Amino acid sequence: MSAADMEAPLCLPRRPLTRLPRAALPQGTVDTHFHVFRAGAPLNTPRSYTPDIATISDWIEFSGNLGIARGVLVQPSVYGLDNRVLLEALAAYPDRLRGIVVIDPETAETEIERLDRLGVRGVRINTRNKGGLPLAAARTLAESIAPLGWSLQLQINPEQLPDIAAPLSGIRLPIVIDHLGFIPLARETRSLHVDALKRLMDRAEAYVKVTAPYRLTKDVNYDGFAEVACALAASHAERLLWGSDWPHTELWDGMPDDTELVETMQAAIDDPAVAEKIFVRNAEALFFGR
């Protein structure tokens, strides 16, 4: 084991489901953000973490228990540009899954078209983890994938939110922000960050994943999450997406309960019409139109 591997600690294992949410998820719910890992698949070096193995079969069982109809599988940073585990999953469940890959910005058009046929619908930029693509790659990637209607998925820091629009000017494609842009939920700065997300969503085809509150606060009750979700839903319900963030990578000190996470989201968005958009319709239109 190399020194770099030793610096990538093993993630906590996911918690098993012990009960179902008190209220069922809307019929047709789409999980727009989860990862899978296969034993023996080569891991990137350097990387930010070493995953606990959670396979596509594990997610199929998980999603079936929760009533999740379909999913969007996101390439994790620990696999770098090697999308084989993701593509294996898409091949196994072509009607149920779509994928977000990580590719070299200079990838040939023929390869992008091949990935499209396999069910890929976007490319991920990740400035927060070792092995992720930088924001500087955004324009080149956007120019390559826009003709296919793919989205550009961004896992970035909140201070980078104002820097997104400029490099993509003149290119029309969906932009999707992971995990509320990692904005801190502290009351003192909450409204400023919410305003930044709203300004971004005012741009045509910009979406925000209302996901992973445990990445935004250390408060076990996720104080502030409901307020942020409600504020964004009041003005941009058609631009919000829900995802499980299963199996909750990069955690070493406490693992969230998936049922409680679903109920937290359900409590924040209690209007059935709005919930239908966030859990089902927005993701259907963005990822499953073909």
UniProtKB/TrEMBL annotation:
Domain Amidohydrolase-related: 30-288
Transmembrane segments: none
MF annotations from Gene Ontology: hydrolase activity
Record Pfam families: Amidohydro_2 (PF04909)
Keywords assigned: Hydrolase
InterPro entries recorded: Amidohydro-rel, Aro_Compnd_Degr_Hydrolases, Metal_Hydrolase
Presence of the UniProt keyword Hydrolase in the record: yes
PANTHER family associated with the record: BARREL METAL-DEPENDENT HYDROLASE, PUTATIVE (AFU_ORTHOLOGUE AFUA_1G16240)-RELATED
Name of the protein in question: Hydrolase
